[in-house]
Amino acid sequence: MTILEQVSHETMVFMRGKYRLDEIGDGKDELKFKQGQKTILTVYTHDDKFTFLIIFGRKERECFEMQKNEFSTYIHDYYDNSKTYHDGKWMFIDVSTLEQLEEVKKLILIKKKPNRKPFKKENALYSKCGQRCDLCVHYADLDEDMRDIMIPQLIKMWGQTDWSMRCEGCYSENCYCKDEPCNAKGCAPQKGLAECRECGEFPCVKATSADYRSMIHTEVHYADEITWGILPYVPMQYEEQ
Fold this sequence. Notes:
By secondary structure, the chain is of the alpha+beta class. The protein folds into 2 domains: about 5-110, Alpha-Beta Complex (Aspartate Aminotransferase, domain 1), CATH 3.90.1150; about 135-235, no CATH class. About 35% of the residues lie in helices and about 15% in strands. It contains 7 helices and 7 strands. The protein has helices spanning about 5-20, 60-65, 75-80, 100-110, 145-160, 185-190, 225-230, and strands at about 20-25, 30-35, 40-45, 50-55, 85, 90-95, 220. Strands 5-6-4-3-2-1-7 form a 7-stranded antiparallel sheet. The two termini are about 20 Å apart. The relative contact order is 0.17. This is DUF3788 domain-containing protein. It holds the Pfam family DUF3795.
């Protein structure tokens, strides 16, 4: 991936991993992360960068002032030169590197505390590509109540109505892709590894079927669609990093 693609991917990993929010795109160049009517973050796409709009109210500004020495002059300049209106200080921050994104993440955490509750991992079952089999709608032993919750959201996300295929996991005789090995099963052995999670590059684009949906976009996807239609198929999205 290019640096800008990495910024795009890491933005979505962070926002979806930390927050349960609606993603409201305008179909052109804007994506809003919203909780109800409140916008937490707006991202504008450009050919060579992203522009993040974060609005700090009085409490957020007070919090930032207490932490200001933890930020670089790059962020200081945006903060000091941004205009303050009746609803807060509007910061339009250009981001084109991972270093800049890391600082913006800290601003987002000031704006809103994480509200996503990760799935429990006590009985987690991992596939060779690192995905959670026990969170997959196709897993044969998945709780049927959970499957009933997932399917309507998967239909909305992927536009596919048939989710009847069942799989017993990579290490069973009834693995869905045993006859046509997935990318993960082909890549890991070439590196002398048993599975993707042993790889220093994990998670990568080969390790998830939903990765192309894990970039900054301009579509409309609601929180439940993200929770059940994407995150189960993106390694480590639900887990502590």
